[in-house]
Amino acid sequence: MSTHQAEAVVLRKWPVHEADEIVSLFTRNHGRIRGVAKASAKSRRRFGGALEPMTWVSASYVERPKQDLVRLDACEVLSSPLSDPVNYTRAAALAFYAEVLEEALPDHDPHEAVFRLVLAVLDQTRDGRIWMPVTYFSLWITRLLGWMPSLTHCTLCGEPFGAEAAWFDAWSDGLVCLHHKKAGSRILTAESLTLARRIFQSPVAALAIEEWPANRAADLRRFATQSLERHLERKLHSAAALAKLAEGTGQSVPSRRTRTAIAAGEQGDVSRANSVEAMMHELNKE
Ligand SMILES: [Zn+2]
Questions:
Q1: For the segment 73-94, what is each residue's pLDDT rounded down to a tens digit?
Q2: What fold characterizes domain 83-286?
Q3: What residues have a C-beta under 5 A from ligand 1, the ion?
Q4: How many angstroms is it from 228 CA to the middle of ligand 1?
Q5: Predicted structure pTM score
């Protein structure tokens, strides 16, 4: 048995047995791990709101011989997503980070750059301004996972895009020029290409002063999401919810469970608040 104290971000949790929960954590030094939180569903005293997805915590856990699951003993909150109001839109953004990380990160494989990215975007994902950090995260995580193609040249002929738009589709990697676009391709505007290059040269905080309405760089988010989905070989439920919200066709009336959880979060009742988790549950049912 070995005891660890690790900085981590909570990704998900699932109930097991009567009152235990399995928690997926992205730790700074050991990558993604899974642990059992004993009696966490029954007694909130030990963990409080620390197991809410996308909470930055200091976790104490014990690795046990020949067991995949660690034993999670305590989690101290370093920063909680519930410290800012959690409405449906913000919950969707947090659920998007959690879903991508949960699906994309391998077990026990630390990734310092991804960890720093997550903390940086979490800090910017505030009530009423989620679209910049969501866009920033979707592009950077694609790149850090090694799945971002060239943003400057056509994948097929190598011609530079220069000041022109590029095209992409859901079935193949990379961006292509106007001459090589297929039927059903989508456009990535020249403006969005320029923005993508700026995102790769700027810390997230530097972009926070700009106006980011929901429709800004929607094509970039779609492009990054399609790259992620193709490599993960599955659809990202939270990305679909975000796209609907950006188009103004998203859920405007959350389910009762989501509303209850969100209300608890807004009242600062961390013991009852499962807002991001409730959101993820709703999305996974669709
Ligand atoms: Zn071409």
A1: 999 999 999 888 888 899 999 9
A2: de novo design (two linked rop proteins) (1.20.1440)
A3: 154, 156-157, 177, 180
A4: 23
A5: 0.90
